[in-house]
Amino acid sequence: MITASLLILIAILVTACAPSNKAIQTAIALTPSSTAYPTHTAYPSHTPYPTYTIPPTYTAVIKIKIVTKTSTPTPIYTPTETLIPTETSTITPTKDPLTTEKNSGFYLVGVKIAPGLWKSNGTGNRCYWAVTTKTGDIIKNHYGMGGGTAYIPATGFQVEFNDCGTWTYLGP
Fold it and tell me: Per residue in 26-68, pLDDT tens?
């Protein structure tokens, strides 16, 4: 059962922005803790009717959180002077690591070697090269004289060069 005093207390708390602790304590102190219920004993004593007792006392606890706004200062940016780049007379092109010269070894296509046409400068007769798939199946290979060309398809996975001299990239 909500009493009139409790309704007044709720109205004060809802409408006030930030009530002081003293105002809250005063409002709580003025609110009765419970209303006593009368005991009904108007029945004849020979009739077994129940009697009513006072219900337990409940205390309302109201918590109020007061939020304080703080402001963060806005940073001030100051411009700095930037130098103007000057022209250089010589431009050195950067070499693509996939197309740099290759020697004997294993190279992953697209990772360590570019697909396309490669030329060997080898002169021996024990030159071996092979292009394989991921499973190790040979797509193309050669064993014999060095100094020839090899086409590495983009579908290849790995290339092996052995005793063929230096390989130079000719293009796609």
Answer: 666 666 555 555 555 555 555 566 666 666 666 667 777 777 7
pLDDT tens across 7-25, in order?
777 767 666 555 566 766 6
Of 122, 124, 121, 112, the C-alpha closest to 160 is 112
Global pTM value: 0.46
85-98 burial, b at 16+ Cβ within 10 Å, e below that, comes to eeeeeeeeeeeeeb
Query: What pLDDT score does 76 carry?
Result: 79
- The CA-atom distances, in angstroms, between 169 and each of 57, 102, 117 are 94, 9, 6
In Å, what is the CA distance from 96 to each residue of 50, 110, 114? 100, 12, 9
Q: Quick check: is 41 in a domain?
A: no
Mean pLDDT of 88-106: 82
Residue 26 within any structural domain of the chain: yes
Total number of domains constituting the chain:
2
Closest of 101, 105, 134, 130 to residue 118, by C-alpha: 101
Q: Are strands 116-120 and 149-152 parallel, antiparallel or unpaired?
A: antiparallel
Q: Residue 11 sits in which domain range?
A: 1-34+58-65
Last residue of a domain, one of 17, 46, 65: 65
